[in-house]
Amino acid sequence: MKVIARVPAKINLMLSVGPVRSDGFHELATVFHAVSLYDEVSAVHADAVSVSVSGPYAEHTPADESNLAVRAARALARRARLRSGALLRVHKAIPVAAGLAGGSADAAGALLACDRLWGLRMPESRLSALAAGLGSDVPFALSGGTAVGTGRGERLRPVPVGGSLHWVLAFADGGLSTPEVYRRLDDLRSDRKVPAPAVPGELLAALSSADVDALAGLLHNDLQEAALALRPALGDTLRAGRELGALAGIVSGSGPTCVFLARDGVSAGALAVGLASSGTCASAVAVTGPATIGT
Ligand SMILES: C[C@@](CO)(OP(=O)(O)O)[C@H](O)COP(=O)(O)OP(=O)(O)OC[C@H]1O[C@@H](n2ccc(N)nc2=O)[C@H](O)[C@@H]1O
Ligand SMILES: Nc1ncnc2c1ncn2[C@@H]1O[C@H](COP(=O)(O)OP(=O)(O)O)[C@@H](O)[C@H]1O
C-alpha cells in the first residue's frame, strides 16, 4: 500500500512576537493561513524509516535523518511502540527556509501518511502533541485552514473566513534561518519593553467578513524588521508589489517570502505576472483547507 499526504504551505497574516520565555522560545500571537502551494509526502512499508526528495527544491532539502519527515515518522513509531518502518518520498514544491513552513508541512505529511500506513488511527489530540514536539508550526500544518496560534505557535483556535482571499507570494533566492531572524529581532529591540503578543479583534472581524480593504490595513509581522535587516532587498520587493497594485504586502513569518493581498483572483494573477516580468519569481495562491490523504 502507498499512502499520499498533500500538505499546504502557510503564511502569517499577523505575527505578534512577545518576550522570550524561559525555554528560549518567544511567546507569540499569530494568524496562520494555509495557502494553495503543496508538498506531497508518500509512504510505503519498509523495514526502516528513510526518505528521498524530489521536486523543484529537492537540492536544498536534507535527505538524511535530519529531514523533518523522517523525524516525524520515527517519533510516531516510537510513540506507538512500533518496529515498522516506511520509505518516505517528499515532493518539494514549497521553497526551503522561506517562511512558508515547508519543513513543518513535510513533518505533518509524514505523521498523517504513516498513521494511515501503519493503521494506527491515532486521535487528533495525540498527533497534535507529537507535532508540537517536532516544531512550533507543525500542529498548524496538521490542521490547516485559518487559525490563531498562541504559546510558541502550537496552541490553535480556528478562525472563520467569510469569503475567498487572494494572495501573491514573491519568492526570494536563498532562505533565511528562523532562529537567526528571532535573534536579530531580540537585538533590534533590546532597549524596548516588549509587550504581551496579541491579535487585534479588528483583524478577526475583517477575516470573518472577508473585507479586503480593512484587512489590508491590519496585516502585520513583528519579524519583518529583522528579516529586512538581514535581507535589505526585501524592501524593494515590498515596494514593487505595492506599486503593481497590491492592497498590502508583508514578509511571511521569518521570511524571506513576501506575501501580497490582492483585491480578487484576476488582480492576483496580474500582480504575479507583473512581479515576474520585473524579475521576481511569484505565484498567485488562495486559502486552502487541511491536508488531504489518499492511497
Ligand atoms: C517564524 C514562524 C512563524 O510561523 O515560522 P516560519 O516563518 O519560520 O515558517 C514560527 O514561529 C517558527 O516556527 P518553526 O519553524 O516551527 O520553529 P521551531 O522549529 O519550533 O523553532 C526554531 C527556532 O525558532 C525560534 N522560535 C520559534 C518559535 C517561537 N515561538 N519562538 C522562537 O524563538 C527559536 O530560536 C527556535 O529554536
Ligand atoms: N523536509 C524538509 N523540508 C524543508 N526543510 C527541512 C526539511 N527537513 C529539515 N529541514 C530543515 O529545516 C529548516 C527550515 O525549513 P522550512 O520549514 O522550509 O523553513 P521555514 O521555517 O522558514 O518555514 C531548513 O533549514 C532545512 O534544512
UniProtKB/TrEMBL annotation:
Q: What is its EC number?
A: 2.7.1.148
Gene Ontology BP annotations: isopentenyl diphosphate biosynthetic process, methylerythritol 4-phosphate pathway; terpenoid biosynthetic process
Name the reaction it catalyses.
4-CDP-2-C-methyl-D-erythritol + ATP = 4-CDP-2-C-methyl-D-erythritol 2-phosphate + ADP + H(+)
Could you say which residues bind ATP here? P95, V96, A97, A98, G99, L100, A101, G102, G103, S104, A105
Task: Name the residues annotated as catalytic in the UniProt entry.
Answer: K10, D137
Superkingdom of the organism of origin: Bacteria
Q: Which residues form the GHMP kinase N-terminal domain?
A: 67-145
Q: List the InterPro entries.
A: GHMP_kinase_C_dom, GHMP_kinase_C_sf, GHMP_kinase_N_dom, IspE, Ribosomal_Su5_D2-typ_SF, Ribsml_uS5_D2-typ_fold_subgr
**Positions of the GHMP kinase C-terminal domain:** 204-272
Top enzyme class, one word, equals transferase
Could you list this entry's UniProt keywords, alphabetically sorted. ATP-binding, Isoprene biosynthesis, Kinase, Nucleotide-binding, Transferase
Q: Name one Pfam family in it.
A: GHMP_kinases_C
SUPFAM superfamilies the record matches: GHMP Kinase, C-terminal domain, Ribosomal protein S5 domain 2-like
Q: Which GO terms describe its molecular function?
A: 4-(cytidine 5'-diphospho)-2-C-methyl-D-erythritol kinase activity; ATP binding
Question: To which pathway does this protein belong?
Answer: Isoprenoid biosynthesis; isopentenyl diphosphate biosynthesis via DXP pathway; isopentenyl diphosphate from 1-deoxy-D-xylulose 5-phosphate: step 3/6
What's this chain's function?
Answer: Catalyzes the phosphorylation of the position 2 hydroxy group of 4-diphosphocytidyl-2C-methyl-D-erythritol.
Please give the PANTHER family that the UniProt record associates with this protein. Answer: 4-DIPHOSPHOCYTIDYL-2-C-METHYL-D-ERYTHRITOL KINASE, CHLOROPLASTIC (PTHR43527:SF2)
Q: Which family does it belong to?
A: Belongs to the GHMP kinase family. IspE subfamily.
Against NCBIfam families, the record matches this protein to: ispE, PRK03188.1
Protein's name in the database = 4-diphosphocytidyl-2-C-methyl-D-erythritol kinase
What is the organism of origin for this protein? Answer: Jiangella rhizosphaerae
**What is the phylogenetic placement of the source species in the record?**
Bacteria, Bacillati, Actinomycetota, Actinomycetes, Jiangellales
